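If you are new to this repository, start here. Below is one unmodified record pulled from the training split, so you can see the exact layout before writing a loader.
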Amino acid sequence: MQWTDQGIVLGVRRHGEASAILELMTREHGRHLGLVRGAAGRHMRPVLQTGNMVNAVWRARLDQHLGFFVVEGSNLRVASLLSQSHAMYGVTHLAALCRLLPERDPHPAIVPMVETILDHMDEPPIASALIVQFELHLLNELGFGLELDTCAVTGARDELIYVSPRSGRAVSREAGEPWRDKLLRMPPFLRGTTETDPPLQDIADGFALTGHFFAQRVLEPGGRDFSETRDSFIAAVMQRANAGRIRS
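And here is the target side for that same chain:
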């Protein structure tokens, strides 16, 4: 068995003296693991960093075997992110999200979305909005998609600014007004509105929305929780934005 693909490094764990088991999120073959010989060497260590894009060849005698990866760097972006705390938290959180997907289950949209986020990581508000959109997409990929196109109460398609925390369905401004304190807010960037610099409140609302449904539908039923890096990413983005306001 053999295939060639591109993938984003999700993580590496040591295996023996010089080898490691590499976990990739690939374009066509889903989340996939394989053994990399010589992973501890000076040439490979910078390549096998979480968030880097690599070209990979996977080989195994049988499809169900762990197999071996031969990889080379394609976009080693992580080195440029090391000085930004929010970026490193973001990269780690994205890897954790990808690990929620079943191993070897193809999800072709995932890698392009993660690439777009990583390419905007030096723009924290935009990266934040993109991560919220990615979390929303991942809920759908996992079979827990929300219904955000029409109002659950009236069927209206305009002014959808709330989401029911129970049903995961959108609610319009008018229909939701009596229960506004009990509903989740849906930020404009989840309603198709393009924002080059989303307000911090919209970012917070977005993370609250996706976080609620991840906890309710994905994590808590399995006795799990988000890693601390998600909260650390959000806090770092907020701190950086507030520091920028003070300087200005």
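Two things worth knowing about this chain: Residues 200-219 form the longest helix (20 residues). The CA atoms of residues 12 and 22 lie 5 Å apart.
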